[in-house]
Design brief:
The complex is a heterodimer of chains A (371) and B (98).
Chain A lengths: L2 E8 L2 E8 L6 E6 L4 E8 L2 E11 L3 E7 L7 E2 L12 E3 L5 E3 L4 E7 L7 E6 L2 E5 L7 E2 L19 E7 L7 E6 L2 E5 L7 E2 L21 E6 L7 E5 L3 E4 L7 E2 L8 E7 L7 E6 L14 E4 L7 E3 L17 E3 L7 E4 L5 E4 L7 E4 L5 E9 L1
Antiparallel strand pairs in A: 1-2, 1-30, 2-3, 4-5, 5-6, 6-7, 8-9, 10-11, 11-12, 12-13, 14-15, 15-16, 16-17, 18-19, 19-20, 20-21, 22-23, 23-24, 24-25, 26-27, 27-28, 28-29
Chain B lengths: L1 E4 L2 H7 L5 E3 L7 H11 L19 E5 L2 E2 L11 H4 L5 E5 L5
The chains are: A mainly beta (371), B alpha+beta (98).
């Protein structure tokens, strides 16, 4: 029977949640790296017992940990992240220029095929790559050449928070940056171009249609159709049917089109999930009701999923890296909250259960479906 | 032998309990203590001072014999009580809401 391993990063350590394929009885392991901010943990698709973890601290800086036994033991690997050349400047909150400074790794994306190859998304925004299992890191500097001087930090900082590797084209990578937008390379990282046409940010940018500067919170794809992308922007849920060349809004009947995560059903490429949040001024669900919204039409027609989720007095947030899906049938959906709850649905979102409810604030959730 | 007190999170990274003891080559200073510490515990590289510039990280402080040495030159000789092991050299995580 298949097994599920959920990797949870929190403000004060990491947790590993495991269950069999029924997804009813859960074992909670942790905290791992207690007291550290664990921004993200992710397993290698080609070697699932290998897990990479970003461990960070305002006091002691960045660490990267690697496990080769599914999280039982860990090895500290490389933590030197140097920007190539002269780092230069980007836009600061007030529009002035500000030097690029490494702060932390937000997201680790292991290669789809090579266990020793892993990408890291950094704050201040940059993309790094390791070809030796995380021991050493090199920047892919072409990304910051895509008008990096016009990028600016969002409220959480200026970071590469999403890295999507195209399963059909090893040379194509998408990244998303707050607040810069989506960028795509078609030559394995040598050159990058902004992929933000159709995004509108009238409350964040002097030119609402600017080529870069948009506060993209998350993008997602289904591996069977990598040219179709879905986006939760600061405001607006968007889709692209041409690999980011252009975007159209698909928010329609959502109670709020502000939010952070977005994800795609494992077996239905047109079924997508978001968690509406009231506004950028009030980072909690509308009406105190925690509702996942599902569209089975790739957007525009949304239904609220509420069974098992708190429908009163709920004022948590769900951060951008804190939702994931498994690949079982029916598809499992998982998300974590800033209140420390991790919710799971074993029926594509129809009903929800709490796996664990009193963790530190959840920063990230990833899922591994194991044989 | 110089005794060094590490903050909790650096003890866990270095996988040590309690104080660590270092043998210093050359004149005992903040710089030579940190060099010996990082040599003996490579997992601490980058956690106390920047990899490239070797500057103290902003939220790290150095205390010795009830004095704050954080802003002294890293080449200032350490007090005798540190050098002879009577007092520990303390690496502190700044009080910053944690």
């Amino acid at each position: 029977m298949s097994r599920i391993r959920v990797l949870v990063g929190t403000r004060k350590g990491a947790f590993i949640l495991t269950a069999d394929g029924q997804r009813e009885q859960w074992e909670v392991t942790g905290p791992l790296f207690a007291g550290w901010e664990m921004y993200h943990l992710k397993g290698s698709p080609s070697a699932p017992e290998r897990i990479y973890a970003s461990q960070t601290s305002g006091w002691f800086g960045q660490q990267v940990q690697r496990s080769d036994d599914g999280g039982k033991t860990w090895e500290q690997v490389g933590n030197q992240f140097h920007y190539e050349g002269t780092p230069g400047t980007h836009q600061w909150y007030d529009g002035t220029q500000h030097p690029w400074e490494f702060k932390r790794i937000w997201h680790l994306e292991p290669s789809l095929t090579e266990p020793d190859t892993v990408y890291a998304g950094a704050e201040d925004a940059a993309l790094f790559k390791s070809g030796d299992g995380g021991k050493s890191w090199q920047e892919i500097p072409g990304l910051r050449s895509a008008k990096g001087n016009l990028w600016q930090p969002g409220a959480g900082g200026m970071a590469v928070h999403t890295i999507l590797l195209d399963p059909a084209n090893a040379n194509r990578i998408f990244v998303a940056i707050s607040a810069a937008g989506v960028f795509r390379t078609d030559d394995a990282g040598q050159t990058w171009k902004p992929a933000n046409r159709g995004l509108k940010s009238p409350y964040e940018l002097p030119d609402p249609d600017a080529e870069v500067g948009h506060c993209v919170h998350r993008i997602a794809m289904h591996r069977s159709r990598p040219e179709v992308l879905f986006m939760q922007k600061h405001w607006d849920v968007m889709r692209s049917d041409n690999a980011g060349d252009s975007w159209t809004e698909v928010s329609d009947n959502l109670p709020s089109d502000f939010g952070f995560p977005i994800d795609v059903h494992a077996h239905e490429p047109e079924t997508i999930y978001v968690v509406p949040i009231k506004s950028d001024s009030e980072h909690f669900p509308p009406d105190g009701k925690l509702r996942v919204y599902r569209s089975r039409t790739g957007g525009n027609e949304w239904e609220a999923l509420t069974k098992g989720l708190p429908q009163e007095n709920c004022y948590v947030n769900v951060l951008r890296d804190a939702m994931a899906v498994d690949s079982l049938d029916p598809c499992g959906i998982y998300f974590g909250t800033t209140g420390g709850q991790v919710y799971a649905s074993a029926d594509s979102g129809d009903t929800w259960k709490t796996i664990v409810r009193d963790l530190p604030a959840v920063l990230s959730v990833e899922v591994q479906t194991l044989p | 032998m110089i005794r060094v007190v590490l903050p909790y999170h650096l003890r866990t990274l270095a996988r040590v309990e309690g104080e660590v003891e270092l043998t210093i080559e050359g004149p005992p200073t903040v710089r030579t203590v940190l060099e010996a510490l990082e040599s003996q515990y490579p997992s601490l590289r980058g956690t106390i001072r920047d990899h490239g510039t070797l500057k103290r990280r902003p939220f790290i402080r150095f205390f010795a014999c009830k004095e704050d040495l954080s802003h002294e030159s890293p080449d200032t000789p350490l007090p005798d009580a540190i050098v002879n092991g009577a007092e520990p050299f303390m690496i502190i995580g700044a009080i910053a809401g944690g």
